[in-house]
Each structure stands twice: as structure tokens, then as C-alpha cells.
Amino acid sequence: MSATNAYPVELEAPDISAYRTGNTGIDYVHTFDSGKPGPDAMINAVIHGNELCGAIAVDYLMKQDIRPTRGKLTVAFVNPEAYLRFDPAHPTKTRFVDEDMNRVWTPERLNGSDSTVELRRARELLPLYDRVERLLDIHSMGTYSDPIMLIHGLEKERRFTRQIGYPAMIACGSGHVEGLRLIEYAPFNDPASDRIACLVECGQHWAKSSADVAIDTALQYLHALDMISAETLAAHRHTAPVEAVTVADVTHGYAIRTDDFFFAENFKGLERFNKAGAVIAVDGGEEIVTPYDDCILVMPNHRAVKGQRAFRLARLSEAAV
Ligand SMILES: [Zn+2]
């Protein structure tokens, strides 16, 4: 255990060099066309370079020859420059090269004059995001939280992620403090568009379980789109199916205000607090408490510093109760 990382690296980053030259004209992007009518769907891995589970899931689909039976499927290693620098001795270092690639999806940044590794790659991939009808963006988290599907909360997203039916928790809303995530890039966040993006947080970045969850989310996504059969799903799934999904609405995102912030406990995420007033954290001597009963803590970030989001709070969606 190093001073900077308390989480063991149980996963091995797959060698993706063979995937560099694809058939799309964009490095590390491949499209498989069934030749039959159907969805134009995409699966993203490693928009954050140190989140290995997405690379493992896409590598699995490629090696196991899992191909769409209708429509076309595009798979992408989104930030290969960051991913290729991954070093298990310093696993936290390679989230990005120049900047967080999941904050740049605003017209100002994409059309602006800044030139970072992540912006250049975002601009290269943009024609895909302007075209695909469905997108699954695979991520992982800093703590041993159970997996979560994150969406805006638009009706089209709620319907689609319920169809995917995995993992067990769907959290709607943003709660973040700066920039826009890819799933917030138009047209995905436009209620009038029928294109849909969702983001899955599969578990701790380097926990073996997060790779299993990433593979199964990708399979259930393809099955929900009727692009692989139930038999293919059953033959390849690594974890048990989910009986029923829970939907929660993110109501708050908390950004740290002082240099003296700490969590009340070593929360891992998805803890539920029955009563309002439960202490989540202390910031500059002030207790930060749950604002309502039956509050769920989502994605506590124990590495966040002043100005950054430390956690989100969510409440169970009416429809799910
Ligand atoms: Zn991520």
C-alpha cells in the first residue's frame, strides 16, 4: 500500500495495441455492422485512463467475438493516451493527461481555441457522438461502492436504463460542480431527441468485481437493444442478474468550502440515512447533514479538496417506491 493509494490493483490493464487501427478512420475505435436494420449503438471505455474495467469489458467483447445481430455497434477506447500511461505502482495518476475528459463537453470548450490532449481527442470523436443513437459510457469509482447507473433523469433515460436492468441502482441527476459530462452533451440531454446516453460506475477502479460488472452492463445494454440474444447474455455474464432496480434522484452535490473538510465516517457510497440531520461530513467546523429522511449518499470522494465535489445526496424516486 502506498501513501497515495489505499486500494490494491487487482485488475490488469489489457494490452490494447492491437486495437489501434480500427475500421472507422479513428484510432482505437471499431464498428461492427450486422448489415441488418437496428440501433446505432456505442460502448465507451476509458474516458478516464485509470478506470480499467471499461477496457476489460471492450477487450472481452472483441476477443469473445460478441457481435451485434442487428444494427451496428461501435466500441471506443476514448482516452488511449491516458490509458496507455497506466502504471499499477501509481494507479491514481492516469485519470487524464491534461484535463478531465468528462468535463469538456460544452460548446465553448469543444469549439474554442484550447488545445489539450483530451480536447483534441474529444473533437476527433465528436462525429460519433453526433450520430450514435445509444451510448454506454463505462466508468469506475474511488471507493468500494456498489455499482450505479448514472443518468440525467430524462424520461427516455429512465425507461432505457430500466430496460437494461443492471446494475441494481439508477441515480438520476448531476450534482457535479464544473463542466459537462459526455452524457450531458447535446443531443443526449435534449428531451426532444430520441438519442440516449448513460454512464455506469462499475465499482472501485481496480477491484476485480468492477470488471465483472462492466462486462455484464455491456451485455445487458446490448441485450436491451436486442443486439445480442438471451443465450449470448446468459453464456457470458459474470454476475447474478438483478431482480429489481432501484431509482433515486440526486438532489444535492456538495462542493468542499474550506481546507478543513472530513467525512464523519469512512463512507463507501449508497449508505442510507433514515432520518434528516445525520452528519455526513464536517467542513470548516460546520456539520454537513442530510436534509431529509431516507437520504442516500452517492459517490463520496475521499480525495476531493476545496472547490471540488465531495459527494452527492439522492432520494428514492417516487416511481420506485
Ligand atoms: Zn470515470
TrEMBL record:
- One Pfam entry for this protein is AstE_AspA_cat
Q: Which cofactor does it need?
A: Zn(2+)
Protein name, per record: Succinylglutamate desuccinylase / Aspartoacylase family protein
Give start and end of each Succinylglutamate desuccinylase/Aspartoacylase catalytic domain: 37-203
- The source's superkingdom equals Bacteria
The record's keywords, sorted A to Z, are: Hydrolase, Metal-binding, Zinc
Q: Which cellular components does GO assign to this protein?
A: cytosol
What InterPro entries does UniProt report for this protein, alphabetically? AspA/AstE_fam, AstE_AspA_cat
GO terms of molecular function: hydrolase activity, acting on ester bonds; metal ion binding
